[in-house]
Amino acid sequence: MTVFFPITTPKRYIAAVLVTIICLHYLFTITSDGSGRTSPFSNISERTGERHSNDALSIPDYNNLQSYPNITGPRANATFVLLARNSDLVGVINSMQSAEDRFNRYYNYPWVLLNEEPFTDEFKERVSVLTRAPIYFGLIPKEHWFQPDWIDEDRARAGRQKMMAQRIIYGGSVPYRNMCRFNSGFFFQHELLQPYRYYWRVEPDVRFFCDLDYDPFLYMQEHDKVYSFTISLFEWEPTIPTLWKTVKDFIAEYPQYVENHNAMDFLSNDGGKTYNLCHFWSNFEIADMNFWRGEAYSAFFEYLETKGGFYYERWGDAPVHSIAAALFARRDQIHFFRDIGYRHEPFQHCPSGEQWTKGRCSCDQKDTFDYTQNSCLKKFEKLFA
Ligand SMILES: Nc1nc2c(ncn2[C@@H]2O[C@H](COP(=O)(O)OP(=O)(O)O)[C@@H](O)[C@H]2O)c(=O)[nH]1
Ligand SMILES: *[C@@H]1O[C@H](CO)[C@@H](O)[C@H](O)[C@H]1NC(C)=O
Ligand SMILES: *[C@@H]1O[C@H](CO)[C@@H](O)[C@H](O)[C@H]1NC(C)=O
Ligand SMILES: *[C@@H]1O[C@H](CO)[C@@H](O)[C@H](O)[C@H]1NC(C)=O
Ligand SMILES: [Mg+2]
């Protein structure tokens, strides 16, 4: 990206130098993927200083951090994570803008964006401008994404055709299955996520309705939480016909991984015999990657993987994560973020009362999934009754 133009006057010369510096800086910014643009644990004043003094992207000057209390207080070992395609650009911008406006512009947790194809320069430019925090763009290793060779493709195809005939959403899609398997067993193994413990998962075209005046990552840490949600609901049974049987086989073989004070009653109305299809909607997650990296979940995912259900059926990362969190963690380690207003089409959670006012929420309090017919929130709350 060298800039050539005839230099005839000093004015032009200065302009040329400036343009070159800006381009070089910009090139550095978008190519320093994962190489540690700033340490995630450098303190805020260092960080804003760094980003501010040589910022060629003319990012608006939110230089008012002092007016936000606790901003220089303790930070969590945490990052946002967003899986997306290049074609998701506009949706990614919508989601990031919302997360930044309502929370992260004050906290500056890093962003890690992942894709099985390289992000385009345009994509990186358009999303980098949205945050003052470090942002990293990562490529997913092939073996973490694509359907493995040992999957019997004839059987997988038959499974897809059956689901298409049943008109199940994404029933015929192989990429969707790649995505579900990646989110179930691989994202937390990505090189760019190794430096972190907690993550906040964001998807394209989601919305955060309320200001958050505390750090949810620190909340997780301080309260020993491993998994959290805003919306819970019933799964589409035909996507997971043999999942529960597989879970029961796993439990029988590895009873040591099942936590005593688990949340089985969230998953089952008959003590584990059958699955009631309740799960946490995993397009929103704030959770502890060390739980996924741990012995119980690693063994669980490996067991599921060998059954091939991510491809022969269409096992989603939502039921897989939910079942694991409910069985291998204590029930009190799962948290409902009642004060985080959130929408992912076609459902939303809107806080109410004091939380709605305090959060300056932009959602309608009456439009909330919480206690509707297809919600599992009541079931979750009954665990603690
Ligand atoms: N890189 C990449 N990301 C994908 C692909 N399919 C889905 N995603 C991402 O995976 C997440 C879930 O996909 P989405 O289309 O939102 O599924 P839905 O929320 O279940 O309707 C989103 O973050 C998508 O951007 C894919 O083929 N490649
Ligand atoms: C934050 O960084 C500034 C500038 O480098 C330094 O003076 C200060 O001591 C740091 N504060 C903490 C809490 O590390
Ligand atoms: C953050 O967490 C990861 C994963 O547990 C760990 O490897 C890393 O050392 C931690 N970083 C800090 C600064 O504590
Ligand atoms: C900020 O810190 C004070 C104590 O220093 C605490 O009472 C308050 O809850 C904190 N606020 C947030 C938003 O974390
Ligand atoms: Mg989505």
UniProtKB/TrEMBL annotation:
For this UniProt record, the keywords arranged alphabetically read as follows: Membrane, Transferase, Transmembrane, Transmembrane helix
What processes does the entry annotate via GO biological process terms? cell wall mannoprotein biosynthetic process; protein N-linked glycosylation
Write down the InterPro entries for this protein, in alphabetical order.
Answer: Glyco_trans_15 (IPR002685), Nucleotide-diphossugar_trans (IPR029044)
Q: Which residues cross the membrane?
A: 12-28
Which is one Gene Ontology cellular component term of this protein? Answer: membrane
Record PANTHER family: ALPHA-1,2 MANNOSYLTRANSFERASE KTR1
Q: Which family does it belong to?
A: Belongs to the glycosyltransferase 15 family.
Name listed for the protein in its UniProt record: Glycosyltransferase family 15 protein
